């Protein structure tokens, strides 16, 4: 396979073979690498712009042609810098979207595990048995209340004597 077809078909990536695409971690790592590379290029262009400004100032009115050339290069570097800023914004947006998608996927996966655990806990429970148990508990609470009422009523020693 030629280098160009590998580039466009993604044939060179060992981590993504057989799975239909890179994992979120791989994609995030690549996006971060790209961000770092573009940040370094930004720094380089900023130093080049400063250098061209210094050259333009140095030549000033003595050599207008050299000063104009330096200003043209500066303008070109500024245009590249603006493009890099836009690209970095796009990459940052995509990275954040990917991180959010990965988080949502993990949350959904964990909610599925919780649902399976609840299903496993509830599979041994029968609603009829639970209803019978709740009725038994209510009956026993009623008996306990009657006993408590009987004990707590004052004994009527002497109150019930007929004069």
From TrEMBL:
Ranges of Gly residues composition bias in the record: 9-21
GO cellular component: cytoplasmic side of plasma membrane; cytosol; ESCRT III complex; late endosome membrane; multivesicular body
Keywords, in A-Z order: Coiled coil, Cytoplasm, Endosome, Membrane, Protein transport, Transport
Tagged with keyword RNA-binding: no
Compartments it resides in: Cytoplasm, Cytosol; Late endosome membrane
Gene3D superfamilies: ESAT-6-like
Entry annotated with the keyword Transport: yes
Family: Belongs to the SNF7 family.
Name the record gives this protein: CHM4C protein
The organism's taxonomic lineage, starting at the top: Eukaryota, Metazoa, Chordata, Craniata, Vertebrata
Name of the encoding gene: Chmp4c
């Amino acid at each position: 396979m030629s280098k160009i077809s590998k580039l466009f078909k993604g044939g060179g990536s060992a981590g993504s073979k057989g799975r239909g695409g890179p994992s979120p971690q791989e994609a995030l790592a690549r996006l971060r690498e790209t961000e770092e590379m573009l940040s370094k290029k930004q720094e380089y262009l900023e130093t080049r712009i400063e250098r061209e400004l210094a050259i333009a100032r140095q030549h000033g009115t003595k050599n207008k042609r050299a000063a104009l050339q330096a200003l043209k290069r500066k303008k070109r570097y500024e245009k590249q810098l603006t493009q890099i800023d836009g690209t970095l914004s796009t990459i940052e947006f995509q990275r954040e979207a990917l991180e959010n998608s990965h988080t949502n996927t993990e949350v959904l996966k964990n909610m599925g595990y919780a649902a399976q655990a609840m299903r496993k806990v509830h599979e041994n429970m029968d609603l009829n048995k639970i209803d019978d148990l709740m009725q038994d508990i209510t009956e026993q609470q009623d008996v306990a209340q009657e006993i408590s009422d009987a004990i707590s009523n004052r004994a009527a020693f002497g109150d019930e004597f007929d004069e």
